[in-house]
Specification:
Oligomer: single chain
Strand content: 25-35%
Distance between the termini: 49 Å
Radius of gyration: 17 Å
Order of helices and strands: HHEEHEEEEEHEHEE
Strand order of the largest sheet: 2-3-4-7-8-1-9-10
Number of helices: 5
Structural class: alpha+beta
CATH architecture: 3-Layer(aba) Sandwich
Length: 214
């Protein structure tokens, strides 16, 4: 499969797509990071298993298959999310799970789940037994607009049962309106709102702006 994400004009198209879909502030924040200033408010969410109506795939072809993505296929994501094939393979070897949607032999969308504690922008997050951290949900360009990311996130719990995962958490940028809309569809629960400020990749501050449980 030719990966459209690696085509010559993809970055220009991506910038225009983000602005059209209300992601101007998200794009501006990314630009500021290039000069060493990172201002990033973000939500900490709990994904709710079966918390919404089952989403439908908007495609005349319905032959999508939910499956694990292994080391032999993960190279398709090389440098798409800023990670090399070697780094992706290392993550999987250390226990990260990749779940995807395929149509035929093509990977249409995928996501990753980490079962270990992790650090995000200088802040440590603890992952307990039967919990996981959802990250890097991605739909390939040729399959966008078909509701695949929502469908995949809803159904990924089915395969995660093999790992005894019952609860998923995720982080979403305050400026990423597209992901927030998906979370709304799935009735994901906002737990906390943080503000991160980073300077020159050397100094890191995290502030709790709101605790939605109070």
């Amino acid at each position: 499969m030719k990966v459209a994400e690696k085509s010559k004009f993809y970055k220009t198209k991506l910038l225009w797509h983000r602005i059209r879909h209300g992601l101007f502030l998200f794009t501006l924040r990314n630009a500021l990071t290039r000069i060493g200033l990172d201002i990033a408010p973000y939500y900490w969410y709990r994904e709710i298993k079966n918390g919404a109506e089952k989403p439908e795939i908007r495609d005349s072809f319905k032959d999508y298959e939910l499956c694990y993505i292994g080391l032999d296929e993960i190279g398709i994501m090389n440098n798409i999310m800023g990670l090399t094939t070697k780094e992706l393979e290392q993550n999987l070897s250390m226990g990260q799970i990749c779940i995807g949607l395929k149509r035929g032999k093509e990977i249409a969308a995928l996501l990753f789940v980490d079962l270990q504690d992790f650090v995000f922008k200088g802040r440590s997050f603890k992952i307990k037994d039967k919990e996981g951290y959802l990250l890097n949900v991605y739909t390939f360009q040729a399959y966008r607009g078909k509701n695949l990311a929502t469908y995949l996130r809803y159904h990924c719990f089915e395969l995660l049962e093999n790992y005894s995962v019952e609860e998923l958490y995720s982080i979403v940028s305050y400026f990423n309106t597209s992901s927030i809309k998906v979370n709304k569809k799935l009735n994901a629960q906002k737990l906390k709102l943080y503000l991160y400020i980073g300077l020159l990749k050397r100094y890191h501050w995290n502030f709790l702006l709101k605790d939605y449980s109070k």
